[in-house]
Design a protein that fits this description.
The chain is an alpha/beta fold. The protein is built from 11 helices and 13 strands. The protein folds into 2 domains: about 170 residues, Rossmann fold (3-Layer(aba) Sandwich), CATH 3.40.50; about 160 residues, 3-Layer(aba) Sandwich (Rossmann fold). The chain starts with a strand and ends with a helix.
Length: about 325
Amino acid sequence: MSTRIAVLSPISWRTPPRAYGPWELVVSLLTEELVRMGLDVTLFASGDSQTSGKLIAVCPRPYSEDPQAEPKVMECLHISEVFERAADFDLIHSHFDFLPLTYSGLVETPVLATIHGFSSPSIIPVYKKYNGRVHYVAISEADKSPELDYIATIHHGIDTAQFAFLESAGEYLLFFGRIHPEKGTHEAIRVAQRVGKKLVIAGIIQDQKYFDAQVQPYIDGKTVEYLGAVGVAQRSEVLGRALALLHLISFDEPFGLSLLESMACGTPVIAFDRGSMPEIIRHGETGYLVADIDGAVEAVDNVQSIDRSACRKHVELRFSHTRMAADYARVYQEILL
């Protein structure tokens, strides 16, 4: 009999997301590949989610797309559903942050939790309480807590077939991600101004006050253009036609899917050297790791020396969704032996 895996996805967005939703995207890519590998996978996600496995949903729509929804109520109903069915599965694989850990001591089914970053140090005590009972996977070496034990580090992967490679570099610089102070939208504007190049901004507005004060005043459609959230159908063109992706973060980012997507299209990444960035970017080969705005400006001047085909090959070799799924399948086997 095939191994029965319950995969618990977040329900902020659909799995897979229509536009934004990095955790839901990872869950979808993993789930689909596990099914293709022959595992018996049940996805717990919002009711409008799409999967070739079995789908169980108690919440019809993701709460970020439903203004009438009460997120905490939906989360409690959603998480409790998988644990009340725990005996039906050989393993529960959670991608839902820390709350599901509090159910793990009530079931005999082993639980694996992928930690998609720590939103705050204040949540670590929950992970510490269930350390040893729940198996933890880190998404980068940079995001590991010294207070926890990990069964593996598994970098995210993407389906490169969904991203067209463009051999010729474009002219504009690109910011691609949620618009929030820690993601460096304003810093990208400053770099674009200093090098005299157009900046294209794509992503959801996560901090409206920041957008209104630090981003909106510069949007004129010519030197700075805002596209809003970009769906899957548009991503290859928006990413691939850029000269470089600017990722000037002000926090230690656990991972960055947009970096993989950019490099898959052939577009190198210029990023502040923080968090997981050195695990994703090969300095001088697929982009540049820089310390400050001056370094980013210098990197833009040098970025055309990057071989765009090397960016694509880097993602194909190290960051494919098939590699990610194979890594998880090995961890499942290790837990269940």
